[in-house]
């Protein structure tokens, strides 16, 4: 945990330092407020959220007569946590019910980190004593299935894959069937995310969803979002929410960006809780998302 926090803090340093500098000014003039606003926007908090947060912060500091930087920092932290709605349920639905495995559908654009995140989640679950099966429903690139299989053998999970260019829906169906037959706890299904063609993606993902649901309801549909793609990525993400019922977001590559504020935009724009954050390429570089902890790291 300490390692993850330090990794996150390191990546947020630019943002944190800039803000702390502003917060420690003893004189909060109009320029300073503007600079605070700019820092939040630069960190990808989003224009609307930033305005709201700064307006509330200004009002609070006025009412409270805030003078000290420490006080201001904690007021800002409170506003950021509040913007993340700390009351949301962020648990990943991976527990089997009555001996039937939980099914997690993993979606997102190519390169966002779907396969890696599947591997990391499997790792966490297996370390917790659960059994996991991976389904390689990204059948368009043989390398994608290979990569998932490599993760599978690394963390101790069986991988179900089809022949090259197989129907993704049929691989997903077979994976869940195999999971039921072998009584595993959780089936994680990795999908393809070709966004060139929205209709094609809708057809394909929609079909994967419908076919998997023949076995029973999907417990979790996790959208993988690359934090470094900023507001653009957010627009692409919206397409997925139109096709499948996204129940949670995993925000990846937060280790390489000072734009961690994207978490706030994601929740506001998509209305879906961020449940996990990816903090590196390694098997242990995944953490549950905790608003207070995250904001603390964000502010440096
Ligand atoms: P997919 O196409 O969505 O399945 O994406 P991949 O899982 O293949 O990931 C694409 C690249 O991003 C790979 O090189 C991963 O190692 C890398 N990656 C995934 N998650 C993270 C993360 O949290 N941090 C960093 N730095 N790299 C990541």
UniProtKB/TrEMBL annotation:
GTP binds at residues 108-115, 190-194, 252-255. It catalyses: GTP + H2O = GDP + phosphate + H(+). One of its GO terms (biological process) is SRP-dependent cotranslational protein targeting to membrane. GO terms for cellular component: cytoplasm; plasma membrane. It is a peripheral membrane protein. One of its GO terms (molecular function) is signal recognition particle binding. Its main location: membrane. It comes from the Bacteria. Its EC number is 3.6.5.4. Residues 273-286 form the SRP54-type proteins GTP-binding domain. Keywords: Cell membrane, Cytoplasm, GTP-binding, Hydrolase, Membrane, Nucleotide-binding, Receptor. It is an enzyme of class 3 (hydrolase). Belongs to the GTP-binding SRP family. FtsY subfamily. Involved in targeting and insertion of nascent membrane proteins into the cytoplasmic membrane. Acts as a receptor for the complex formed by the signal recognition particle (SRP) and the ribosome-nascent chain (RNC). Part of the signal recognition particle protein translocation system, which is composed of SRP and FtsY. This is Signal recognition particle receptor FtsY. The lineage of its organism: Bacteria, Bacillati, Actinomycetota, Actinomycetes, Micromonosporales.
